[in-house]
Amino acid sequence: MNREVLKIAFSAFFADLGYQAVVASFPLLLVFYFHVPVYVYGVVESFSYGVGLFFSFMGGLLADKWESKKVAVLGNSLIIILSFTGVARDAIQAIALFLTGWFMRNFRSPARRKMLVEVTDESERKSAFGVLHALDVMGGMLAIAYLATFLYFRVPFSAILPFTAVPIVVSTLLLVFTSKGKRIESKGTNLRVVLGVLFATALFGVSTYSPGFPIITVTQSTDQLYLGALTYGVYLGSSALFGYVFSLVRIDEFKGLTLGYLVSALASLGFVFLFPFKALGLYPMVFLLGLAMAAAETFEPTIISKTIGQNVGRGMGYLSLARGIGYFVGNTAMGILYSLSYSYAYAFAFAVSMASAFIILFIRK
């Protein structure tokens, strides 16, 4: 890894070290502190991804028209709004602060991915995206560790979340000091592959749902808030581990992506049957969900960067747009189905994830 890749990757580390504590706190704040029904949380999550997808698309578009570094720095600096969620006086304030900061996170992501492409050669892309994802979620895992510790000792959210602003500031400074990369040479666009990956990504988004649902499931199964928060730590820890593994192993991107989608399907099916076993049964399924997300975050952008042509920022925006559409549909469906039965929600996720795997198998031929 060259120095600029590491700056970008450690910027991701510090960003997640801050805002992922807010992400894990958000369902707990709404459902268990402000006593909002689970289906309302599902609608809010759908809204966050549904509207957020337009911010992602605009971020990717501006990364091509303006400059990827400027867009990434602007979006990253405004993620700090998430840190004020903990001081919200009611559910409406919490939702407004969370959504605003989350939209800025979406705005930044395609531009940051383009920055990574600009400082690497094509042969380095899989390793670079794997390292980016590994450090990204490693920061999130540490965020969940300190959040769960504070919650165990009953420290209030209002005393925890404002301090998440500090690592977000560090993250932004690392992007500021990252050197601009080279101009991307166009090799043409493989439209069949690009459209196939985008469609599969959208379906995977439908099947993936928000990590808040496993957090709620484990909390309901164990009746312990800190075990619910630790769910996200298991997920992020697995995702960090396999992001690094995928950066090292020599595996075809299409095979790796298919594997990730299939593992996600298996994990969702596991939630249907293992609820009575509490954390002992559910944590391994969360671990598999982390593996699946690492595969998606490593192989999806790698394939797009190699097949989209010169407009990489726009391609990354389309990728975020496709995932956002999937999240919008998926979280609404999960919220409604979960209100009927958790087993209906996870069975739905299993079926859709299987469909995304078959699409990748089809376009690979």
TrEMBL record:
Keyword field: Membrane, Transmembrane, Transmembrane helix
GO terms of molecular function: transmembrane transporter activity
Top-level taxon of the source organism: Archaea
InterPro entries to which the protein is assigned, alphabetical: MFS, MFS_trans_sf
Pfam families documented for this protein: MFS_1 (PF07690)
Transmembrane parts of this sequence: 12-34, 46-63, 91-107, 128-153, 159-177, 189-209, 229-249, 256-275, 281-299, 320-338, 344-363
Protein name in UniProt: Major facilitator transporter
Species of the source: Candidatus Aramenus sulfurataquae
